[in-house]
């Protein structure tokens, strides 16, 4: 349940190999000896992934430079990095001797070297100030592969003149992607970007605006490095942008009047009939990893743009019936907004963007039928009719699927007995009284975050305000009831805006917080369009910054219209809008739903991983390989290494399920909580 703006924004999956060095510095970092559920294979051979990935890689910089390469091909390409990572070591040459990098003076993991992962690829990165020899080796078989990382130091200078090497007029692709190589500095092609980087500023403004925006470390402007702008290294390097409108970009010297203004033009297509046709073919075959993808169809003959993605309808044929791909309980596919999750054994899908948009799927082990449609009136939710393109995905039965066998189920207590073998119960509320125990719980009220009119609906476009009314929060028959009712309430922040529902929200801030442990909620949840019950956690003190840099743990969230499914999620990364998330879904056995009975929703939180369960059955895990905090890039456990407090609430509407509005008959809706129990391992 996110606590600041739109949480279910679909993050576009980017395939931009030209940004390898910059991606590797921003991507999720893996622990020095970590494995991605290694299958225990040993290395019998290694060869360079490509000519750009060894044996010699040259970089230049002022005092230091960033190097990176894709992992080699293992065992002739038959083994993945995750399968052999337990057998893979790294040496560096010190004098004339090879030394394990973890023992070599001057090398600190996640500071000047480490792993990177992106778009299904893995590799190493290094920040070096001298030429260095690196060796990958098999611990079991002695197989070795050598790299020489050649560093050339550059003398720093200032900018006296700039002239474009591309542009200055540039046309963006349909995805908004555009870029240009660095200009010639000081009328001298030998003056590199690294030599003048400290003297260069980048400004952006829409073509209709008169105000230049400094986009350096200015996420509040909406310009976020490695999300909608960044740099690439190939061909001498340059800048790339993802735009949704035409913009000007200005490169400006800090010490002189020298500058260049580029114009990036985004041509928005004109639509008439909204008829979809295949972009290139309708049959796609999974590769050795089980990956494949579909370019999104053309609309009226041209590729779709970003704002049209939410209008598409994606369906999969299951036993002769077309099922929405997003309905994971039926489609058996999980949406992975941050790219493929290599430790989840689920079928996964998401968006990719190159010069066009598309969908990726992995692992595809059997043939399947997909269809993609578009509303005939061009409006989300409109009638699609027969306006579909049908696709066939050819599966690879030998494609690997991550091994989930190490993720066992857990024991749970009974309604009358919280005892669990091996666990100490450190806090509980069984709701056995006649009213909410305010020594344990706070009641939150309102409709705005920090009284900011722009954050109505808690920053998520939710439609409820929270109250202390016994109509919305009450204890009865040993259960806490959080009930959403019809309302029509306005607030001083914006008297013309009305919250159409009232509901309840309670938390344990300043009364209970925990760092690591296990939390069990036993609850029965309501159903209905736009009904959004949540059991979750936020940091007691946001030591790494505002949401989501300090993290969030969602123990359980449910969409009332999909009563057969719940989810567990973490939020992390940078401060909004530079936030990221990772999550998984649980699908109830046939005949069970969130509403048919009480179910126990559990999270087990350890220093380097978090696991989710329903009724003791494991369904999702994340590790510190997958999370990070922008405020602590060298701390692999941040932000989930600080105390968090508990929250329970029932929201209505909002972005979590696309702004759906309940039917009148769905309200009142009530979430009933039987108990909350917090444990620590003995």
Automatic annotation (TrEMBL):
Keywords, sorted A to Z: Glycosidase, Hydrolase, Signal
Origin, by domain of life?
Bacteria
Q: In the record, which residues are listed under signal peptide?
A: none
UniProt cross-references to InterPro entries, sorted A to Z: Beta-glucanase-like (IPR000757), ConA-like_dom_sf (IPR013320), GH16_AS (IPR008263), Glycosyl_Hydrlase_16 (IPR050546)
Q: Which SUPFAM superfamilies match?
A: Concanavalin A-like lectins/glucanases (SSF49899)
A single Pfam family it belongs to is Glyco_hydro_16
- Record's protein name: GH16 domain-containing protein
The taxonomy runs: Bacteria, Bacillati, Bacillota, Bacilli, Bacillales
């Amino acid at each position: 349940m996110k606590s600041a703006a739109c949480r279910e924004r679909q993050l576009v999956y980017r395939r931009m190999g030209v940004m390898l060095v910059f991606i590797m510095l921003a991507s999720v970092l893996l622990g020095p000896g970590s494995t991605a559920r290694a299958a225990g294979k040993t290395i019998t051979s290694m060869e360079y992934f490509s000519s750009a990935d060894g044996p010699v890689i040259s970089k230049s910089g002022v005092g230091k430079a960033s190097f990176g390469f894709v992992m080699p091909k293992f065992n002739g390409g038959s083994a993945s990095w995750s399968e052999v990572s337990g057998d893979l070591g790294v040496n560096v040459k010190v004098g004339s001797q090879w030394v394990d990098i973890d023992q070599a003076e001057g090398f600190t993991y996640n500071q000047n070297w480490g792993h990177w992962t992106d778009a299904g690829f893995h590799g190493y990165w290094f920040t070096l100030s001298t030429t260095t020899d690196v060796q990958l080796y098999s611990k079991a078989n002695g197989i070795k592969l050598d790299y020489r990382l050649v560093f050339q130091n550059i003398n720093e200078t200032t900018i006296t003149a700039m002239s474009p090497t591309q542009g200055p007029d540039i046309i963006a692709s349909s995805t908004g992607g555009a870029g240009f190589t660095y200009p010639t500095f000081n009328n001298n092609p030998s003056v590199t970007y690294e030599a003048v980087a400290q003297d260069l500023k980048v400004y952006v403004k829409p073509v209709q605006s008169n105000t230049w925006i400094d986009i350096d470390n200015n996420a509040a402007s909406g310009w976020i490095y490695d999300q909608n702008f960044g740099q690439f290294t190939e061909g001498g390097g340059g800048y790339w942008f993802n735009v949704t409108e035409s913009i000007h970009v200005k490169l400006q010297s800090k010490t002189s009047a020298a500058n260049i203004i580029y114009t990036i033009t985004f041509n928005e297509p004109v639509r008439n009939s909204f008829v979809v046709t295949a972009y290139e073919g309708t049959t796609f075959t999974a590769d050795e990893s089980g990956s494949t993808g579909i370019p999104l169809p053309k609309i009226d003959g041209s590729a779709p743009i970003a704002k049209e993605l939410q209008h598409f309808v994606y369906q999969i044929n299951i036993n002769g019936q077309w099922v929405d791909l997003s309905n994971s309980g039926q489609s058996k596919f999980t949406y992975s907004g941050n790219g493929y999750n290599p430790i989840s054994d689920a079928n996964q899908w998401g968006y990719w963007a190159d010069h066009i948009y598309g969908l990726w799927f992995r692992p595809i082990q059997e043939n399947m039928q997909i269809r993609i449609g578009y509303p005939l009136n061009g409006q989300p939710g409109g009638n699609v009719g027969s306006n579909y393109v049908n696709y066939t995905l050819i599966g690879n039965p030998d494609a690997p699927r991550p091994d989930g066998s190490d993720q066992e189920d857990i024991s749970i207590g009974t309604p009358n007995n919280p005892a669990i073998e091996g666990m100490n119960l450190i806090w509980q509320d069984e709701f056995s009284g006649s009213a909410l125990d305010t020594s344990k719980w706070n009641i939150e009220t309102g409709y705005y975050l920090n009284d900011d009119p722009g954050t109505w609906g808690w920053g998520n476009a939710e439609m409820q305000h929270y109250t202390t009314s016994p109509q919305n929060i009450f204890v009865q028959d040993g259960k806490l009831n959080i009930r959403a009712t019809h309302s029509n309430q306005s607030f001083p922040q914006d008297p013309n805006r009305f919250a159409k529902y009232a509901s309840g929200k309670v938390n344990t801030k300043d009364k209970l917080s925990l760092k690591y442990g296990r939390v069990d909620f036993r609850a029965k949840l309501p159903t209905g369009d736009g009904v959004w019950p949540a059991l979750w956690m936020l940091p007691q003190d946001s030591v790494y910054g505002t949401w989501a840099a300090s993290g969030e743990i969602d123990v359980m969230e449910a969409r009332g219209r999909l009563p057969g499914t719940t989810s567990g999620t973490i939020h992390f990364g940078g401060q909004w809008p530079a936030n990221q998330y990772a999550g998984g879904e649980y699908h109830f056995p046939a005949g069970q739903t969130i509403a048919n009975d009480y179910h126990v929703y559990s999270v087990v939180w350890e220093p380097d991983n978090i696991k989710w369960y329903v009724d003791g059955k494991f369904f999702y895990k994340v590790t510190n390989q997958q999370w990070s905090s922008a405020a602590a890039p060298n701390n692999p456990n941040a932000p989930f290494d600080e105390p968090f407090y508990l929250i329970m609430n029932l929201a209505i509407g909002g972005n979590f399920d696309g702004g759906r509005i309940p039917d009148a008959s769905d309200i009142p809706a009530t979430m009933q909580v039987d108990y909350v129990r917090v444990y620590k391992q003995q």
